[in-house]
Amino acid sequence: MRLCNGWRRFLLCLPLIFFLPHILSVFELHQDSTIENLHKRQTKKFDHLVLGPAAGEGLQDRLQCQGIKALNRTHYSASSEHSNLGESIAFVTVFAAYGSNTDRLLSGGSEHLVTVGNVSYNKVERSMAILNVFINFIQVTMPQSNIIILTDPASKLPVHRNRVTVYPIKGEYSRDKLMLQRIRSYIVFLEARLKEQSQRQGRINHYIFTDSDVAVVDDLGQIFSNYPNFDVALTFRNNKDQPLNSGFIAVRGTSYGIQRAMVFLQEVLKVYISKYMKASRMLGDQLALAWIVKSHPSVDAKRFTRPRAFLEEIGGVSVLFLPCTLYNWTPPEGAGQFHGMPLDVKVVHFKGSRKRLMLESWNFLSSSPSGISDMLCLILSSGRTKYDF
After folding, report:
1. Which structural domains are found in the chain, ordered by start?
2. Whole-prediction pTM value?
3. Are 372 and 217 in contact (CB under 8 A)?
């Protein structure tokens, strides 16, 4: 350094040399703090809908919105449930209400209530509201379908709706074991259906197992007619570690289909218990599904990067892979959110903090002349915001 030639100038520069790293460190700390505060502001949960720009503007075959008004229309299918005589569809979900008495005590005060529209909910009531909206969407888009709720025999679910059955199955429904219990409940349920199937002459009842925080926004009967050769259908996304989502599993209701679905789910359960019990509270079933599928030599993992349905035989079971972008579209996760919402989306999955958005969407649909397309604009414009559920 020319400015510091000679001892005199060196001594003058010495304090600067000593304090410069400290100054830079303070600057970096301040910068990190600013970024952290910005992140906190972005992840703050809201108690009302926050509308933003709808992703996918100008992209072909994507929903185009002006505010919450759809500029084009989704490819809504006419009901196909009567197209195959003697075939029907039942939706199956696992639902558990945790510590009802404790939750009511904890949420008794107004500070613990959450208000959506004109209704205030405590913790237990929120879960029941989500379950009822799940039923509402199915009864609008697929009114001839039955809905079956698998639950703990100790739960007394106050669900009294047409075409809705509460089906108790013994098991461990604690929060830490619910995902494990869900697979077990599916297997027990299918085993009972297999026994009934032998008594049904010519009548087939297909099953779609879903989480209860999904909205079915189009008829799903076309899965079974358009893809007649599958036993089990799963949804996939472009995610290297977790390419499969367990929130949507379809099973063909023939004897062979049910048998093979049971074999497949039993293998999932076996891998789950042996490899992923540390993830039993969440994700264990998805990790087990991914392990089974990716370890099969015929499966090309690159196919999960392209949103096109494909069929593979895995352990003697014909598995149909359906893209999440259509059959399990999630507002806050995955690359699909940046590319908007496909016009032919069938299922919207309100994961995590999007539960308020699910209730708000139903309120919007049921209280205004706007149709499903406008409601989807509401979801698309609000989906990246975290809410208070």
Report:
1. 78-382 (3.90.550.10)
2. 0.84
3. yes
